[in-house]
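Before a colleague's protein record goes any further, I have to sign it off. Alongside the sequence sits a line of tokens, each denoting a local backbone shape. I want your independent view on whether this chain really folds as the tokens say. Where you disagree with what is written, explain briefly why. This is what I was given:
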Amino acid sequence: MKLENSVVLVTSQVPGNHYFGTGFVIRRSSGAVYILTCAHVVKDVGGESHIYVDGMSATVATSGEPEGLDLAVLKVEGLWQKPPLKLRCSGDRSHTIETIGFQKFDSYRQRRSLSGKLGNQVALHAHSGDRIQAWDLQITDNHPLKPGYSGSPVIDTGSETVIGVVSHLQGQGEFGLAISIEALNQIWRVVDSEQLYRTLMKLGYRQQVRQFTQLIRKHAIAALLIYGDPGYGQKWLLNRLVNQHLPHNLTGKVVKVDLSRRVRRSDVSALWRELARRVGLKGQPVPEEIIQRVYRWWETQNVLLIFHNVDFLPQASFQGLLQDFWLPLASQARELKTPASDYKLLMFLIDYQGRVGDWNAPFVEKIDSRWSPQFPVRSPRLEEFSDNELLDWITDESDELPPEFKNEEEIVEQILKNSDDGIPELVLQEICERCGCDWYEELERWLKL
């Protein structure tokens, strides 16, 4: 990768303002890029409302102060072709450094790479009392640092990672000062994808999680309906329940059937053929053969039966699935296994339209001593995330979230505004965006079921 491809020119939209500086890409997400530069560059070009990055309008995602933590992160809806540079908080004084920035050349702005050495790490004490880590720089090239280099990346040539950002020039430009990438954590945090996933898995759905943990703590066999309106996180909740609360989680047999295909919802025999294929049977097996195959699996491992889009089935076909498949399977398993079995036999019925919960089916909600596994459990209908849920979650997970989340009430208000008052998947998408992650890209890795 050519490092200079990630370096951008920061200019002003204000006529007559000829100040400029440098920035570089640190994140790409949802069609936008995030640019790291200096806070004083933002101020010099006219402030938040007057920034151009490579000729495109930019907004300020977060910023320190020019007289303090002299860093700012800009967001540009575009420049997607520019790759992010890798960041590292530590540097090695035995390595040479490179910085790439812009300088004035006649009436042009020229991008130039400079070589140098990394000096001592120093601590700056801002008027606010903040302690800011920085590096001394020594330029060994024939060309010195010039004002346009503010915001340039300081690259450790040994690892090709950015360890600092040029902030101030010293002498005639042969020396400089760079804010350490370590200091960026005070205003911005690029959250690791897996870390963000674990954090999001703690948001909301308390009633559903409580019911599920109560269910599997005492019972080895159960069927569970997860239902709600479109966009309420049915698949997200399914993965959370299995990954976080099921012993041995995904180890074992997992059978997934999508009932949205027209043939499966118009022909019951097609459903049986599909289910038979999923359990490894050929020909025209009857439900009893499928039941026996599933039962044999369960004797040695967890078995998860997942039916997506059960709302596409006619009510009669849904009743047939329960009566002809689940009821005899659960009855046979219950007769020969104790409730404390090491392995779980679970059927998940996922309704993405919020219809099935109102059907005339033998659902139960309360799990007591009279409950039998033959009766599917209806989880509480999925609802919007409330402001209190979001506030509690941000408070509990503040150490794992970007600094902007410390403005809890303001952030919650913005999230709810951008998610139609708390529709779960829109909330999760909004949080991902604020953490620099692409919700749609991450789902491919996060959701396995």
Notes: The mean pLDDT is 88. The radius of gyration is 29 Å.
